[in-house]
UniProtKB/TrEMBL annotation:
This is Radical SAM protein. Its cofactor is [4Fe-4S] cluster. Keywords: 4Fe-4S, Iron, Iron-sulfur, Metal-binding, S-adenosyl-L-methionine. Gene3D superfamilies: Aldolase class I. InterPro entries: Aldolase_TIM (IPR013785), NrdG (IPR012837), Organic_radical-activating (IPR034457), rSAM (IPR007197), rSAM_sf (IPR058240). Pfam families: Fer4_12. GO terms for molecular function: 4 iron, 4 sulfur cluster binding; [formate-C-acetyltransferase]-activating enzyme activity; metal ion binding; ribonucleoside-diphosphate reductase activity, thioredoxin disulfide as acceptor.
């Protein structure tokens, strides 16, 4: 199994699905949705290369984690590797899986864009599909905009009490030095504030470097 190309990860959050979850954001997306909250992860360029088994172990480092969320970037373009990640995780612990994709489920099933898509779909409990459309962002739910659909592929999370489509959004912001990571699906206004703050921090850092 080949290595994954991962933009970043986070271990232990409550902002991207039910329970306590670890998140993989893959690098590379063929879409260019206006207002995408992760534009740095759209280019299909080498980022962090990691083997599926190693990544699964990392994601389960927090013993309270009971779910994984795959986002990006476009997870289905690395479907074979991600299917191996969730299978490896499930060999260690009972783990649910939420996966985002810019494709529609019908396209994934009938014309998969990469090897391993059917394998990955076999593992997914909840698939959130479709492109982000800013004009249809109603500020609610785990899906970014109202056109995106929530598919309970396994039914396992259908009755868990988590309202994927209508819940109030929650986000976590992690700051590490000069980098900041926003975890979750933010209300539109928060994303604007976040981007502005990150840019200000970057500029102050550049200014500081010049002064030295
Ligand atoms: S599909 Fe997702 S990651 Fe890709 S451009 Fe659209 S919002 Fe961004």
């Amino acid at each position: 199994m080949g290595a994954l190309n991962v933009a970043t990860t986070w271990v232990g959050t409550t902002a991207l699905g039910p329970g306590r979850r670890s998140v993989v954001w893959v690098q590379g997306c063929p879409f260019h949705c206006a207002g995408c909250m992760s534009p740095d992860w759209i280019p299909d360029v080498p980022a962090r290369s990691v083997e599926p088994a190693e990544l699964a172990a990392e994601l389960l480092a927090d013993p309270a984690v009971d779910g994984l969320t795959f986002s990006g970037g476009e997870p289905t373009h690395q479907a074979a590797g991600l299917a191996e990640v969730i299978r490896a995780a499930r060999r260690t612990r009972d783990t649910t899986l939420v996966c985002f994709t810019g494709y529609r489920l019908e396209r994934l099933r009938h014309r998969p864009p990469a090897p391993g898509v059917a394998e990955l779909l076999d593992e997914v409990d909840v698939l959130i599909d479709g492109l982000y459309v800013a004009a249809q962002d109603d500020g609610r739910g785990l899906r970014g905009s109202g056109n995106q659909r929530v598919h309970h592929l396994s039914g396992r999370l259908a009755d868990c009490g988590y309202d994927f489509e209508g819940r109030s959004r929650s986000t976590e912001i992690v700051v590490d030095g000069h980098e900041a990571l926003l975890i979750g699906v933010p209300p539109p206004a928060l994303l604007t504030v976040f981007d502005t703050a990150v840019e200000q921090v970057r500029q102050s850092h550049i200014g500081g470097d010049h002064e030295r």
